[in-house]
């Protein structure tokens, strides 16, 4: 079911950005929030949304844009991980550069914000420079953002380097929140004004969608996605006061708007288009609401995303990577959205599969795991763990057989292949468990495809699993997590232990 029209959205969004460029006499710095490529959150909550629609938007504007990329030095130094890619921010940034190149874009410059000579960050900078990428560093401005007089002076933005740009539209994107995108935009506008040049600033963020209701599931799903940052959606009081219209924005932009307004007023004057910014919502150019063509479909998808986020944060809490407070925030959002965790069809199905494994004794080393996958036609496929396969591996093979209409009695993986891999794992590699994870099963399936037509046929059906929901009862191992991520499955788990010990 489709709830979002990409073409309608692209046309409205491109027009909105062009109008904003004209407002600022042909030079606009556009803070580009969210994921530039593979925005899977948006694709999940807006069924039909192309995960790369932002790239398609940039392609429509290709003749007038260049791209500046920001990264926070502290994120590099701490080795911060991007949850969607499982990569550190520096490596994820390099991957983004390569992905952009595949679409015909190059990075005009990289800005390392709040740089104070950190060693790991300097190595990253040296590497980029060795690849002929322009790199600029910007120090932390003491008193930012409260000390307006200092910020808008030679001691503040004036200390930052001015990045030469040629195109009317400069996309300022970066590695996650806090990368310094807004500060970079405003610093650039400050430098333009010093020499009498006109330039403007605007924000592009898909969520929250400002002209959807506050408690619309899509906006609640955004709160769930940023619960670790404790972002909250609010009615923009500045917009309501100025126009009498309820618009939705998130707490940080609303809390900081008075300061941001002072900064931009100091940069410009009463005649500047900046004076038209009466609210944080005014700063945005978001037209995502125009792409929604079926609100019912979108609501259901967003409710499922809130449930998915709950399980993710719970898993991360068990791993010691997230706070209990984050889990509690999403529990409250579930109530606001009117859903329970068991409203995700795969949850109870996976738990029932684990019970069946226990009743039949088909687990492995006394652990009984279940997995359930929902196909696009809403059929639920089950999998259980065994001495040879993880539950996640079993459900993938069962789903492929169901999609390909392969009878149950036909094996996709010859016993000798599974046995040989199992022996290698246990006898040579020293693994306690010989059962195959998802990555290993996919390799085995490709080996089997060379001589087994059924395996070869199923291998070609793998892409049909993309976007399906999968729930598992137990902690997901690295080999399973990597394989499921590459298959683009929407994974949730109860995160029960897979061992009676402490190390999984």
TrEMBL record:
Residues 2-337, 343-496 form the DUF1846 domain. This is DUF1846 domain-containing protein. It comes from candidate division CSSED10-310 bacterium. Gene3D superfamilies: dip2346 domain like (3.10.630.10), Domain of unknown function (DUF1846), C-terminal subdomain (3.40.140.40). It holds the Pfam family DUF1846. It comes from the Bacteria.
């Amino acid at each position: 079911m489709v709830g979002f029209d990409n073409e309608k959205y692209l046309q409205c969004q491109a027009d909105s950005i062009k109008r904003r460029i004209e407002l600022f006499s042909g030079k606009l710095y556009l803070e580009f929030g969210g994921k530039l490529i593979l925005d899977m959150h948006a694709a999940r909550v807006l069924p039909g949304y192309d995960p790369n629609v932002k790239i398609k938007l940039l392609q429509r504007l290709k003749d007038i844009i260049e791209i500046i990329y920001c990264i926070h030095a502290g994120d590099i130094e701490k080795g911060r991980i991007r949850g969607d890619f499982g990569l550190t921010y520096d490596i994820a940034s390099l991957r983004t550069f390569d992905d952009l190149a595949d679409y015909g874009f190059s990075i005009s410059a990289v800005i390392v914000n709040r740089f104070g000579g950190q060693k790991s960050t300097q190595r990253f900078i040296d590497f980029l420079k060795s690849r002929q990428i322009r790199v600029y560093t910007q120090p932390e401005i003491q008193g930012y953002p409260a000390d307006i007089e200092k910020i808008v002076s030679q001691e503040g933005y004036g200390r930052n380097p001015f990045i030469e740009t040629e195109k009317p539209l400069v996309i300022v994107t970066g590695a996650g929140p806090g990368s310094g995108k807004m500060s970079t935009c405003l610093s650039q506008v400050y430098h333009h004004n010093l020499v009498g040049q006109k330039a403007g600033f605007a924000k592009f963020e898909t969520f929250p969608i400002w002209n959807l209701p506050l408690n619309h599931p899509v906006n609640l799903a955004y709160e769930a996605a940023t619960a670790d940052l404790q972002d909250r959606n609010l009615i923009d009081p500045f917009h309501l006061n100025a126009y009498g219209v309820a618009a939705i924005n998130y707490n940080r932009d609303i809390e900081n708007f008075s300061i941001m307004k002072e900064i931009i007023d100091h940069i410009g004057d009463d005649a500047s288009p900046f004076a038209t910014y009466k609210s944080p919502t005014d700063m945005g150019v978001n037209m995502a609401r125009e792409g929604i063509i079926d609100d019912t479909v979108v609501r259901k998808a967003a409710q499922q995303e809130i449930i998915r986020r709950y399980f993710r944060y719970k898993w991360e809490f068990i791993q010691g990577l997230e706070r209990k407070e984050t889990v509690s925030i999403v529990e409250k959002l579930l109530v606001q959205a009117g859903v329970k965790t068991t409203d995700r069809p795969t949850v109870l199905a996976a738990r029932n599969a684990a019970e069946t494994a226990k009743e039949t004794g088909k687990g492995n080393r006394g652990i009984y795991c279940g997995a359930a996958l929902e196909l696009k036609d809403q059929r639920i496929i089950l999998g259980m763990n065994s001495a040879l396969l993880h539950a996640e591996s079993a459900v993938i093979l069962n789903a492929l057989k169901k999609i390909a209409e392969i009878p149950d009695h036909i094996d996709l993986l010859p016993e000798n292949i599974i046995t040989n891999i199992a022996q290698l794992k246990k006898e040579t590699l020293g693994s306690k468990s010989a059962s195959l994870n998802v990555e290993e099963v996919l390799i085995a399936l490709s080996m089997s495809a060379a001589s087994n037509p059924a395996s070869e046929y199923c291998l070609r059906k793998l892409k049909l699993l993309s976007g399906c929901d999968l729930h598992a009862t137990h902690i997901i191992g690295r080999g399973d997590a990597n394989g499921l991520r590459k298959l683009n499955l929407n994974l949730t788990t109860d995160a029960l232990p897979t061992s009676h010990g402490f190390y999984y």
